Amino acid sequence: MRFLHTADWHVGRQIRGRSRAEEFRAALGEVVGIAVQEGVDAVLVAGDVYEHAAPTPEADALVFEAFLRLHEAGVAVVAIPGNHDSAARFEAFAGLLRSVGVRVVPRVRPPAEGGIVEVPSRSGDEVAEVACVPFVPERRFGDAAALFEGSERWFQAYAQGMGDLLEALAAGFTPGRAHVVLAHLFTDGALVTPGGGERELTIGMAYAVPPSRLPGTVSYLALGHVHLPQDVRGSPAPARYAGSLLQLDFGEAGQRKSVTIVDVAPGTPAKVREVPLTAGRPLADVRGTLDAVIARGRELGDAYIRAFVETDGPVPGIADRVREELPNALDVHLVYERPERPDGGREPVGSLHPRDRFVAYHRHHHGADPPAELMAAFDEVLALELEEG
Ligand SMILES: [Mn+2]
Q1: Is the dihedral of CA 93, 130, 59, 56 positive or negative?
Q2: 308 CA → ligand 1 middle, Å
Q3: Annotated domain spans of the chain
Q4: C-alpha of residue 338 to centroid of ligand 1, in Å
Q5: For 229-239, what is each residue's pLDDT tens digit?
């Protein structure tokens, strides 16, 4: 049987306040087109369908349109919520969506209680099984006692718990059928950017499952959560992050997006193939003098641009100038030598209090401390934020 594996749609995401609805419409249209052209039996959506837990009607319309078009083409869908989605909302829609061939598994369930979904082939003579692991919030794995045992222990408990959960689900498969796992989770060592780098090591990501704990008896693991399309290194069975539909932010600038076509058969590892997506507008970093940035920006057509303009010091109005010339320039930063700190070191931004981090941010981007009224507004927002926890 053949599946199309996609993930991390994040429908409803904007960029610097600009709508990307048309790009989502085009990219989802591309996904439907590939599913039809490849003659897949089902599309697997590995979570983060929406950007927000309470999506706008516009985002809903885009997702429902894609589901409906797949249904009309005779392609089934299996979908799970990611950390951006509301499981409760998915639960509310599950029955309705089922009537258009979309199987939603909103929460982790034992195999016999809906945790494993049967997917018949379009020809009707085969059935594959898809074990579903929606995103499990980290806090669910930390009971009160774990809170007092230090964070390392807690992360280990998460990895252990997720490993056990995957094993228990895999044990529920019916022998003689093709077995697939559909999960929204982070695996140890996944690359957030093509070269890896410091973004790999943010706090949330310590809640990772070691690839060696993924079940080795399945044909394929269709994963979501990491936006760079990639195979999972060190997994005992073929496993892959399909990646997002669009370059969602400048951290994903230049990334090639794709869907994965997966051929599965009982008892054998899947054959996996990447099909590129081209619908979204590219995101690009442009660096140089004012003239060079403008010239390069013009060459980039409809790409969203983050500009780094090299100057000798602060130049009032230069950002407006760049935006006038390049309507797609979303961020404009000035790059010039800052006076060194007395101790000659760089500011360890990651370890500072939010207030100090904001000051460091402002100094970095504007070459000066924030004005008093801005600081007062920041304090007000910070106080609210702390109150809400
Ligand atoms: Mn995501």
Answers
A1: positive
A2: 27
A3: 2-276, 283-388
A4: 36
A5: 999 999 999 99
